[in-house]
Amino acid sequence: MSLSAGGNQTKILIVEDDIYMQLILKEFLSNVYETEVCINGMDALVTIQNGNIPDLIISDLNTAKLSGLELLGQLQASDFFRKIPVIIVSGEDSSEKRILCLNAGADDYIVKPFNPAELEARVRVVLRRVAR
Amino acid sequence: MEMTDTTISKSNQVIALLNFDEQLSSLINHCDFEGRQLIHFDTDTDMFSKWEDEKFNVVAIVSKSDILGEYGVNLIENLVKRKFPVVPVVLVVKHLDSNLRKIALDAGVVEVFTRPVKIENMDIRLNFLINNWVDLQTKLKQQKAVIIIPL
Asked: What is the pLDDT of residue B57?
């Protein structure tokens, strides 16, 4: 379960309960990044709390236990974890949801289904912005 | 060590505040901890004595101390030695960086707030940690118990 096993490689924590989506995200990201998957926000918080701190979190908006939005709320309220950037992925293509998530602290919002190459590009943008 | 029973009524649950100054005490009185009691202690010895005498139902500890200070990570060691219930320990610190964060997380500190503390953040995090502590603690132990065997 450790994210740190791969040394200095950039670590991405994927929070997704859909197995098919997990496979897609891992497939396209694991060539470049070290990835770890949690099935809900609660498990993600536990992973981080255990000291496995990722460089970026990609979270589904609607996981069963602690949604993406609730996870964002906890991270933003935490002085330990506030600086971890978060990209929300969701099937809901509504302006209201985008605004809600961005106002809650998300660094980006991507609608499913997405072009994996676009996801990779957005991941790079967020990581570049954080590195500055 | 036992875990505190969080199923009892919230008015009987205690958040122990350690080493608070006047400013921090005033600030925390504006927090909404869902009706839980706040009890102040000047030292950890005071807290341990009162707990041994009264066995009050402590559900969290908030300590004003830097991570390497008197009531920072040292406090966690003392809690274990005294067989104190396993509860979320939160620190209010002046300084935080990634090295200190690692030390704190490794020691078992679950959250740190840098001064000046934002009340709403303390509300959100402390209530969440207390309300979900049994679940979080169980999952933390499960993840730590995973052994990775290289192929």
From this structure: 94
